[in-house]
Amino acid sequence: MNTWSTQHSFTPLALTSTDSLPDLAMINLNDWGMVTLVGPDSKSYLQGQLTCDVVSLTADKSTFAGHCDAKGKLRTILRVFHYQNGYGLLQRQSVMATQLPELKKYAVFSKTEITQTTAVILGLAGAQAQATIDHHFSGDADVRYNDTATVVKVDNARWLIITTAEQADSVITTLAPAATLTTTELWNLYDIQAAMPRIDSATELEFIPQAVNLQAVDGISFKKGCYTGQETVARAKYRGINKRAMYIVAGASTQCPQPGDGLERSVGENWRKGGTVICGYHYSDNHALALVVLPNDLDADSQFRFATAPDALWHKLDLPYDVNAE
Fold first, then answer.
1. Domain end: 134, 166, 193, which one?
2. Which has the closest alpha carbon to 225: 76, 60, 49?
3. Do 49 and 175 reside in the same domain of the chain?
4. Is 153 part of a structural domain of the chain?
């Protein structure tokens, strides 16, 4: 039996809202999973399924992508990259059981094998993450590999590590022996601060890609041609039908906001349904952050609250990118 996860103690960090993040943290991303596509038709098959341009994706890069239903509603958001002899697709484990059969639905007509892997997925984060990867993996590409792992750059402070259960102990011990070992909550914090979209089971088939800012993180190609849901996505861009966007909000809370939770917004002296939580993080000093899909025409000083804690007011923070970027 593989015991890498018990040989190493991954424990939650009790961070306050004023604490600095660890210089180097190894994170057990057991709530993320990977699907692989192998076969000569894999590229063309994905090109007709995802919002990104798979054809132009080079072996040294990764990209965000959405997988939609025919109405343009997101089943999932993926990180796509070349992996071994095909493609790797990283997504939330919570959508795997419903999304994967849909991805496979038309594969019978193509020469591609679609498989949910048993890969171990880890995250390396912090100010020393880039130097650590550079020391152990040659080259300067955003996707690299050696005999034990494939690594994929997320941003200047984070890398994903994909390995096997047999190799995981060696990867952790060799790559970052002095790193803080922690749980997925720290990765959630990084994702919120970077406003990186995701879809969990609680938000599956709720939003079109632009409602979670997928276009702002280069996850949509408007030039690639047809794919499932493309008509809705294009109409949202060229006819302006999308009325929502994803924002970072902050406030006092005694618990962590969960995907699918509803946030109310102030309208004069009244409160109305405002938005839906995508991801949340709770600090140990009872402050919290969340990614929330909200109307995209709100005033800058709009206030928000959760119905379960009506006295705690929340507010928007600045996004790290231009939500209207092409």
1. 193
2. 49
3. yes
4. yes
Mapped onto helix, strand or coil, the DSSP state of residue 239 is: coil
Do 41 and 148 sit in the same domain of this protein? yes
Answer whether residue 218 is part of any domain.
Answer: no
Whether residues 185 and 285 share a domain: the answer is no
At residue 299, the pLDDT reads 82
Give the N- to C-terminal CA distance of the chain in Å, as an integer. 49
Helix or strand (DSSP H, E) at 122? strand 120-125
Residue 264: in which H helix or E strand, if any?
A: strand 262-267
Distances (CA, A) of 27 to 255, 299, 316: 22, 37, 28
Residue 204: inside a domain: no
Q: Give dist(CA 205, CA 281) in Å, integer.
A: 23
* Same-domain pairing of 270 and 176: no
Instruction: Indicate whether 147 pLDDT > 70.
Output: yes
Q: Residue 2 — very low, low, confident or very high, per pLDDT cuts 50/70/90?
A: low
The reply, when asked if residue 32 is annotated as ligand binding, is yes
- Over residues 189-207, the pLDDT tens digits come to 999 999 999 999 999 999 9
To the question of pTM greater than 0.85 for the whole model, the response is: yes
Residues 6 or more apart in contact with residue 266 via CB below 8 angstroms:
302, 303, 304, 305
Closest CA to 314 of 287, 283, 278: 287
pLDDT band at 258 (very low <50, low <70, confident <90, very high): very high
Confidence of residue 301 (pLDDT cuts 50, 70, 90): confident
Judged on CB neighbours under 10 Å (0-12, 13-18, 19+), 262 is middle
Which one-letter amino acid corresponds to residue 197? P
How far apart are alpha carbons 75 and 92 in whole angstroms?
A: 11
Compute the chain's Rg from CA coordinates.
20
The answer to whether 187 is annotated as binding is: yes
Higher-pLDDT residue of 47, 4: 47
Report pLDDT for 1.
Answer: 46
Whether 147 is in a domain gets the answer yes
